[in-house]
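Case study 2.
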Amino acid sequence: MSEESEEGQETPGAGIPLVFGRLLKRLRVQAGVDRAELGRRTGYSAATIASYEVGRRIPNAKFIRQADGVLDVGGMLVDFIEDMERAQYPAFFQDAARLEREAVGWHVYDALVVNGLLQTEEYARAVFTMWRPPLDDETIEQRVVARLARQEVFERKPAPTISFVMEEALLRKGWGGSTVMRGQLEQILLIGQRRNVEIQVMPNECEEHAGLGGTFTLINTAKGRRIGYGDAHKGSRLYTDDQTVREMEERYGILRAQALTPRKSLELVEKLLGET
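Prediction:
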């Protein structure tokens, strides 16, 4: 199949991914490298390269650096890395994703699903597959990759301080089936062993609850900024004013006091794991 016929089977993307894709194709053609050769030298199929070139798929930073080197274009593609990383996320999360990469403190309350920073690949795929209106397969895979890439935060040095408060009920949900949930509970136990991470569970039998206003996240940046992030229907919102952030911090402090201790929380997760 020719490159032209391959491209005809792809639905063109839009925005920055499409601009990057067109530049990638132009530089590849100028270098006299076909898609199969570029794919072979970067570890991807010719079909994947075609998807990148029409902006249908969003390449990761590793591919962009490899392609820049193979085509010897002196950083012209590398300049797009930050923009492409932002494009991996839904528009409503792009600002939060940028702040997450800069955070020295990250504190989250979750009530519906396990937080993305803790999700396994299988759990994340199950969550995106259940999205309504439905996402196409390409978008699901793109968002799964982006979600897993966020977990690099756990390897950052110096390590940020991260805490989670999550509802016991979401740990008892069967999203994706028992095998998926078993893997997810194992992941929570594993990450909960890290010294810079504290995981607390809000038990079902609690009689007082400070989180009835909904889920939210608190972010502390290296520059001393304190930011709140709240979920909303079809979007989310960042809060930077002192009063709102202080109210969210107070709410989170009460939630932590009401929840099980980190040790008791992991014991509960281990118990639930034994029941799956």
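The chain is about 50% helix and 15% strand.
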